[in-house]
């Protein structure tokens, strides 16, 4: 039995060098019966325009403004931002006890944006043609570039029609992400993502940067550059590939159909992508989201996030970063059966049953050109 | 404005010294409207005995055995264990490429148990009288003690009626946990928990032990001993308290109503508890689970886990450990509205809206003596 086949059969841990953490894989366990909660598949038959949607062109938002008649993407400041530009400062109080050790806090300022991906209420990234995904990538890029320090070679004044109001302060990190589907707590099917930019680097990117920095110091090469090259030669975990980007189920994936999209060139942030690479990224996003929908023939829920260099701070941090996207989908074995991260996984260690190689094989064999969505709840009254 | 009040108003990060990680708190954001998915509240009107339940006394389980007519608790080996006692060994293959660096794996062996908390199908920890929670604590203790190395002063042969078959191998860590409710992926309402014991220390306890060990080296005292003492003087985050245990919303809580139960004495593992301390723990578990049910007048879902010393390994690890329980409940603002850990939280940093102090105040003010469950779906045909 080859080593690959041994890992198809035995319980084992896999190491995630990007986080410096382990996950438990139990491949023999996939035969377990399912008796738990079921998800409601997402509704279909959405209109192109919904007069009650706060993201559709021309509609009034809850707090204030009216959306313009935007033709491609549209950016606005989140009406319910998790971080704010102006707030009182916080200074940890002096204390005679151990509060300064055990009750530490630090103020966080920042700005939150919403990006509409398309004026059409009823499209998802899987439906939007590749040439209309490029403007979304260009909007992400413009947002990032306009928040860089003015001294950066990649700094750019955003085009007026984007409606981006650049903050007066220099923030440190920009997290671009998308929540799709009710299973991911997303309240509106209108295709959109979010961008939160903050003082300080958040926990996850901070952990990844630390590990990428140490890898570079030790091995003189980029962790994700080495990794994407290795996976392309191994083939087993590749989901989609073109000259510029690879989509794969990472060796250390936690979620059943988790994928990463990694730039094949060692690029630190979005503004460094060439026009051709932007198209390459749009193509891979289109293929991955179509494959996801086809997997269970449903409108596939996920959280997606882009990791790239911090806006500001240590230049060694920036150089250690390698542009990549994470897709984290909750579904496990059908449009209605999800994986739960509970119990052992919360208290001890993340755990998965099917191996990343099995997941990659299933995704690889699905169409990335067309979308099939049989398992939708048809809901004409919605 | 005092510092405490500042943190009620501004976005800030709080440090978790137990994990060495940060979380984002956005207290101003609690006014956000909710349009997302709703949970189905759990069903009521369960029978005391369900002939189709594989955990009820006298019933046949899917794979093989018949449950005995147990009077208190009952332990059996999980029919669908995530780890097994016997499996092929795995040796990382030699390779000329970077596989040994980027595709690391290690075999994991172990044993998984299920513990029925009560013969009654329709009770939860909130319903079980305190004096019947004590036998559950004694069963957890017996399981742990019987898996210690025979040289340990706390080693115990398990009582025959528990039905515990001790593995031939010495495992390193034992994770005791409970998943309660469909929202936590739990398929069976019969009150029960699980125990997974493995070679190697899993990710979460390993991280905590590392931080507790470093704290002890630096400050000459136990991290959780210092923390529980400090919280008792601060009062604000305490939910329930007796001479032996404190229940509190930790300073660094991620989930809206997350709590920890911490032993007030620096005890490393369950077998070190005195009879009186066992009763103290049973009382606090009873109060916390009753308060949880009363919060939204529902059968409150959660994951619970016990962290204590490893079974085997470095004695300094054992000495750094301090017995505690984590309760992680998903509900946010009613029996049907849950918190999702998605988007920014998966990609960047966990985030919460209501502060741990606000959560503790709400839990403190609820009854811990009686249970009210108005918001149940009455489901006579179930
Ligand atoms: Zn990343
Ligand atoms: Zn813990």
TrEMBL record, chains A, B:
Binding site for Zn(2+): 53, 56, 121, 190
Domain (Galactose-1-phosphate uridyl transferase C-terminal): residue spans on this chain: 209-367
Cofactor note text: Binds 1 Fe cation per subunit.
Required co-factors: Fe cation; Zn(2+)
The species this protein was found in: Tuber borchii (White truffle)
Active site: 192
EC number: 2.7.7.12
Extent of the signal sequence: none
MF annotations from Gene Ontology: UDP-glucose:hexose-1-phosphate uridylyltransferase activity; zinc ion binding
Keywords: Carbohydrate metabolism, Galactose metabolism, Iron, Metal-binding, Nucleotidyltransferase, Transferase, Zinc
Catalytic activity: alpha-D-galactose 1-phosphate + UDP-alpha-D-glucose = alpha-D-glucose 1-phosphate + UDP-alpha-D-galactose
Ligand binding (Fe cation): 208, 307, 324, 326
Pathway this chain belongs to: Carbohydrate metabolism; galactose metabolism
Family: Belongs to the galactose-1-phosphate uridylyltransferase type 1 family.
Subunit structure: Homodimer.
Domain of life, source organism: Eukaryota
NCBIfam families, alphabetized: galT_1, PRK11720.1
A Pfam family: GalP_UDP_tr_C
Protein name: Galactose-1-phosphate uridylyltransferase
Keyword Protein transport: no
Positions with a binding annotation for UDP-alpha-D-glucose: 29-32, 62, 78-79, 179, 185-187, 194, 339-340, 344-345, 351
GO biological process: galactose catabolic process via UDP-galactose, Leloir pathway
């Amino acid at each position: 039995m080859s080593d690959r086949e041994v890992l198809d059969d035995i319980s084992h841990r896999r190491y995630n060098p990007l986080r410096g953490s382990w996950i438990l894989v139990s491949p023999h366990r996939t035969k377990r019966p399912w008796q738990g909660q079921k998800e409601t598949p997402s509704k279909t038959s959405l209109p192109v325009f919904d007069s009650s949607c706060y993201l559709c062109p021309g509609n009034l938002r809850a707090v204030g403004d009216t959306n313009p008649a935007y033709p491609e993407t549209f950016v606005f400041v989140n009406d319910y931002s998790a971080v704010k530009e102006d707030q009182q400062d916080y200074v940890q109080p002096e204390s005679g006890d151990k509060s300064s050790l055990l009750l530490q806090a630090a103020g966080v300022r920042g700005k939150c944006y919403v990006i509409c991906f398309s004026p059409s209420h009823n499209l998802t990234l899987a439906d939007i043609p590749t040439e209309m995904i490029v403007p979304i990538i260009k909007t992400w890029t413009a947002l990032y570039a306009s928040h860089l320090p003015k001294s950066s070679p990649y700094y750019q004044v955003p085009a007026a029609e984007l409606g981006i109001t650049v903050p007066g302060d220099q923030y440190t990190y920009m997290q671009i992400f998308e929540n799709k589907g009710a299973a991911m707590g997303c309240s509106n099917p209108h295709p959109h993502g979010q961008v939160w930019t903050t003082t300080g680097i958040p926990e996850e990117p901070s952990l990844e940067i630390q590990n990428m920095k140490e890898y570079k110091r030790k091995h003189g090469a980029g962790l994700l550059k080495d990794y994407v090259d290795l996976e392309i030669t191994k083939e087993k975990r590749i989901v989609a590939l073109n000259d510029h980007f690879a989509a794969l189920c990472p060796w250390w994936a936690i979620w059943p159909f988790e994928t990463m999209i990694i730039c094949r060139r060692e690029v630190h942030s979005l503004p460094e992508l060439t026009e051709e690479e932007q198209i390459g990224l749009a193509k891979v996003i289109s293929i991955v989201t179509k494959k996801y929908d086809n997997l269970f023939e449903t409108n596939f829920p996920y959280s997606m996030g882009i990791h790239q260099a911090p806006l500001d701070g240590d230049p060694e941090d920036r150089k250690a970063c390698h542009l990549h996207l994470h897709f984290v989908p909750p579904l496990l074995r059908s449009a209605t059966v999800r994986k739960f991260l509970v119990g052992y996984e919360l208290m001890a260690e993340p755990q998965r049953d099917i191996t990343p190689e099995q997941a990659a094989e299933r995704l690889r064999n699905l169409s990335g050109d067309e979308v099939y969505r049989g398992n939708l709840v048809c809901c004409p009254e919605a």
